[in-house]
Amino acid sequence: MRKINLLEQARERLFQAGIEEAASEARLLLCWACGWTRMELMQRDDVPDEVAEKFQAAIQRRSQREPVAFIIGEQGFWTLDLYVSPETLIPRGDSETLLEALLDHRRDRQAVRSVLDLGTGTGCLLLAALSEYPQAWGLGVDIAPAAAALAQQNARRNGLSDRADFMAGDWAAAVRGQFDVVLSNPPYIEHADMARLMPDVAVYEPHRALDGGDDGLTAYRILCKSLPRLLAEGGCAVLELGIGQTQAVTELAEAEGLTVLECRKDLGGVERALVLAFSKESSWLMG
Fold this sequence. Notes:
12 helices; alpha/beta; two-stranded antiparallel sheet; seven-stranded mixed β-sheet
């Protein structure tokens, strides 16, 4: 079939389904179906019939608002390529703000030796951190066993399986020891707002990784109580925030003796990454 006809039909179908980037998504899915690079897409005129069928099936799925990442089975994050599945949130560029903040606060790439990622999902935060800190070992925890298993696959895919372990658990309840770095992108959407999410998210991504309870802060209460025992002296935690949550999470953190070092904005200007520290000495003096 003619490539130009396939793309035009696909673009129109996606546009009618409410997909804003209909043309670019159609090109991306055709590259995936054909196994072509973008350059090869520009150079080819015809698409084999069997590949056209695979492409049209993908367009049908996308027109029903299934995320592209779930259709192709992977998503890029930081410098990594990661497998994704409906058991996990799709890694988003906003979450890279946590890595940027971490790298600024822990500049010595050789000094970080241990990283904990709570609610690890695909393992994106933990694996990105390990890729930047070559001496570090990391542990990722997720309440869903299937998510922890997928994260382990991503560690193997990115050559980090010898420095990353994953387990199923309820936040840090089963975690012992202290860590130089603690990362988390917890569920933070207020329960009442879940019904207003776009269908790509509401229908296909796991609600347990999105729903933050009545006020969106349920997970932060658990995390802030756990951080004082989890952070090694001189360590830091970086938590992802939802829109407008900075003050509330700051108050929760300070009530547990944590100190806010920075709140880093993402590229959209949203305060996205809260950097926290805990001093055992100052805690003893306060107590």
